[in-house]
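name: query_chain
kind: protein
chains: 1
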Amino acid sequence: MTPRKKRLLWVVAAIVVLAIISVFVVQALRQNMVFFYTPTEVKEGKVGSQEYFRIGGMVTAGSMQRQADGVTMAFTIDDGVTHIPVLYKGILPDLFKEGQGAVAQGHWNGQTFNAREVLAKHDENYMPPEAQMAIDQQHQTARSLKLEQ
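structure:
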């Protein structure tokens, strides 16, 4: 085999190895992606029942209820238009309270969002950008619907 053919074989082998590595990296990234949805998008059916995702909005005032086991908390998240009931088993963040922004990560079973993780905003001015955009968009949609009536 000539030196030129050997180099060509090494280059082809390197390209094949890089392609295989790229496929594995992309596949791993897809499995670890967590999408963000608003309560309205969830109720409209844009999310599958087995899909793991984040839902964000405001914790509805008067909706927090501790369950009998003492660890499970039920509350509602809304985006100004739609309310989604959430169940979370665990310790809530210290800044988590009614009327404040929150993001929950978990699964939707068609009636209740079962959260595995709950995040609360860290000061009075912070809201995740996706949540703020979604809430603003829902408010604009609600206003335009009221104006049309």
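note: The mean pLDDT is 85.
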